[in-house]
Amino acid sequence: xxxxxxxxxxxxxxxxxxxxxxxxxxxxxxxxxxxxxxxxxxxxxxxxxxxxxxxxxxxxxxxxxxxxxxxxxxxxxxxxxxxxxxxxxxxxxxxxxxxxxxxxx
Length: 105
Description:
This protein is mostly helical. It has helices at 3-15, 24-51, 62-70, 74-77, 84-87, 91-98.
């Protein structure tokens, strides 16, 4: 299902009075039910995008190009170049997100 289809479902739920967007319980339930489905749709899109061929790159996919140009490039392998604290990565929240949990705040 595309993001436009999800939007249509949500608007229909709201227009039919099933979903009250000012009600935190309704929003929690909507997220609880739909976030795993939306994440799965996004993963499918990501997989399709990363593996589609690019005619301007000898029909290589973005994933093939990434792999090709990352081999032997120290910037791709030096994990010490990234400061997680600088970018605000919160591992606890990321783990909850990866499990498909809803993050409300």
